Amino acid sequence: MRKLINSTYITLDGVIENPMWTSPYFDEEAASFAGEQTDGADAMLMGRATYDGMSVAWPSMDESDPSTGAAYFNNVRKYVASTTLTNPTWNNTEVLQGDLVEAVTRLKAQEGRNIIQYGYGSVTAQLVRAGLVDEVRFWIHPVLQGGDSLTTPLADVQTSFDLIGTRVHKSGVIIASYRPRTAA
Predict the structure, then answer these.
(1) Which residues form a coiled coil (predicted)?
(2) What is the pTM (predicted TM-score) of this model?
(3) What gap in Å lies between CA 75 and CA 73, rounded to an integer?
(4) What pairing do the DSSP bridges indicate for beta strands 174-180 and 161-168?
(5) Secondary structure letter of residue 24 according to DSSP
(6) pLDDT digits (tens, 9 = 90+) for 109-162
(7) CATH topology of domain 4-180
């Protein structure tokens, strides 16, 4: 069975939206780990908000430059959880039909490598509650973003996680990987 791995950039104060603050921290070490993630995944899952942002940004990037990752993101099989998107324009994108938990359960049962998911919102929260997220990787950035509308990614999810690994980059970014704890 395939694994569903969530990878989320987050500030010290819990902000995940519009991660423009990540740029100074995306060095060779971060690029290497990001490449390991994409090398291990042959599908990407996202919610509508993530799709709307990525589908505008990635197609305009140079696919001939391997350092951008654009060739991967523009060509990987993409699945969008949305009840309003009907005609996705981004290459290799399919809108999941019907119940999200059932659709993702079917995706995970298919042959293939991991399914990667970026960002942490309502789709991830639903999948964590259903026991379908195998691992979350929080890229904790040494930034306080502040603002009036902070997103707390785990606000309505009560799940315990076991730490399965950490990577500390010279830039100060910490990638903490967790597996949902199974009830004993």
Answers:
(1) none
(2) 0.83
(3) 6
(4) antiparallel
(5) G
(6) 999 999 999 989 899 999 999 999 999 999 988 777 766 544 555 444 555 567
(7) Dihydrofolate Reductase, subunit A (3.40.430)
